[in-house]
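Homework help thread (please don't just give me the answer)

Our assignment gives two proteins as sequence + structure token strings and asks us to describe the second one. The first is just a warm-up. Here they are:
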Amino acid sequence: MKIIGLLRHAKSDWGDARARDFDRPLNARGRKGAPLMGKHIEDYRAERGIVWDRILSSPAVRTAETIELAAQGAGYGHGKTLSVNWDRRIYLASSASLLDVIRDTDDAASAVLMIGHNPGLEDLIFDLVPDDGSSPLRDVVEEKFPTAAFAVLEVDVDHWADIEEGSARLVHLMRPRDLDADLGPEPLA
């Protein structure tokens, strides 16, 4: 079995209209949510004995900041470090491109954590998890896969290259608002 963790970057700042999309940093809500989600991901990992053999990330500023703050929330630092594989193919990638990145993973890895962007991550969940009514979590993702959301998929394959559309189970979903109501959707004006 292979495990895929998907983390969407935390809430980013749209304040500077001149900034390139790639260079957008996190906003205050994102800086609050990322450590909280990092702690949750670490707790989930520890409870289930998962080792993230590969951490694959878009190199965009907002994903790098998300990883840095999530790692702090998970207790990394002080001698405990993360090894991140920065992959430009993940930046604003389609589901098909993200699946190619996953399929290229060395089979020695059992669990991959990917940090990226929407709509690619959300579409990857839709492509991998069957739309047959058997996954209530998929229905939640259909409503929205918000910033800093974390999903875990399991696939019964021995080789990453063998992952096919419709072959995964969505076994876990956590959104920042599930951990802190203040990180929920902004009220409508």
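The one we have to describe:
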Amino acid sequence: MKIISTVPSQTELLFDLGLESQVCGITKFCVHPESWYKSKLRIGGTKNLNLKKIRTLNPDLIIANKEENTKEQIESLMIHYQVYVSDVKTLADNFELIEKIGTLTNRIIESVQLRNKLKKAVTSIYSDQKRKAAYLIWKDPLMVAGGDTFINAMMDLCGFDNIFRSTMRYPEVTIEELQSLSLEYLLLSSEPFPFKQKHVDYFQNIFPKTKVLTVDGEAFSWYGSRIIKKQSYLRGIANIT
């Protein structure tokens, strides 16, 4: 079986399911595992797939995602290849993703073991706190994670009440709007915009009564198996005061 992954987090999941020899193509953003990033053929970016390279590989299965990939490109691939398109917004969706990919790739036993491991990790992270928070993913313009995102599910898991949970996707916001919300926490993601300490200092000056901190974007937005690797970090975030 020849498999192409068009999403970084799902590439890592394929690795954790033991599909080293089956995966023949990944994107330029598939940095985990590093050995695959160095050795596997790269078929473009998540939003700009190299269809010519994909056709050359002639895959048996392409694993894509509704949010990460471009609809037109995925639909064009569906004409010629088997394509599985995930849509992961909740932890339940994530468990289903692991089971589905395990079935598609004939790694059922491995997927059940990985799913159970993930459930234990989730249980160890869970916090019942409800701290009012916003999660910034971009700076100019300011953009936050809305309620129909996997980030929102991870915020819930770590005890943050997403003040933008009633909005869709990743809405733009203003400083003035954020100032009116009496936030307890402002979370600055390390990706896709690489927020740094200088940004923490900038926002902390604007929001003196709010705790501003940078968070690992992979830990909060990568579905699949990344949570297992990041559970110690996420427990720390869940228990931060």
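TA reply:
I won't write it for you, but here's a hint about the kind of observation we're looking for: The chain has two domains: 3-122, 131-238.
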